[in-house]
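#struct-help
A.M.: can someone run this one for me? Single chain, 296 residues.
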Amino acid sequence: MIDALPRDFDRLLRGAIDLHVHGYPDLSAGMLDRGDDRQVARLASEYGMAGWVLKSHLWPTTDRARALSVPGFEVHGSITLNPPVGGVEPGVVELAAAHGARVVFLPTWGAAADVERGGYIATRLGRIAPSFGDYAARTAIALCGPDGALTGRTRAVVDTCRALDLALATGHASPRESLAVAEYCAAIGQRLLITHPLHYTRDLREYVALGAFVEFCNAPLVHPDAHLTLRDVHAALETVGPDHAVLTTDVFSRWVPPEPECLRMFVEQLAYLGWTAEQLHTMVSTNPRAFLGVTA
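D.P.: on it. Structure tokens below:
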């Protein structure tokens, strides 16, 4: 593992919270990371980071988050409302909150939109589990009805997040679904993060106008099949502005450095393109705290 960096190389990560850490294992124990959760969390703390949101495409992360948290470095648990945990159900959200979840992700590979487009995560899961393709097709979850309005269950989940002071993220919803969720969240005052906006949205300004945060991940920039570049993120950030943006990692592969180093690379590269230390701090520390509803 990499030790804490010399010569002030970690200066831009001090106080940072990465809202999109998958940890190990996520999809399969056979998909190795560069370190286990404890090693990588320790590295993040040594880099000066303040915490993570731990995410899984398959299971709640509250128990792992509790085990990883130490004074000065808090790991927030989450639940992703894919079929294995019960899908888009307010009762599932309530139980997750009772176990300490701080963030609710709407369906990722379980989203009907993701199933229709043959999403990356579903493709990987299909290689692991021979029956997965049929399962995903049978259980795909639509957030909106044929009329384009949010389903009653989706509204109930958003209402539950608002009542329990949880943060909500859009997952792999379609552009139409993401906008409908953002409009409803704006109407009731629910904190919202637009996940993968360069994949699943259209005009980012619509979401910013509705008060949502927009997330930009490092993962698509370092994947062997990468279809985005840092310049794409740079241009999008110029559109939405740092006050509405969040920078995260979302990596879980053996070909990339551990998450703290990926985030450091991300912010240092953006600094090279002209983003100031203050702007980067806003995107890795101030805005993640506002989204989570925490101050420490």
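A.M.: thanks! Residues 13-292 form a domain with the TIM Barrel fold (CATH 3.20.20.140).
D.P.: also worth noting: Residues 109 and 122 are 5 Å apart (CA to CA).
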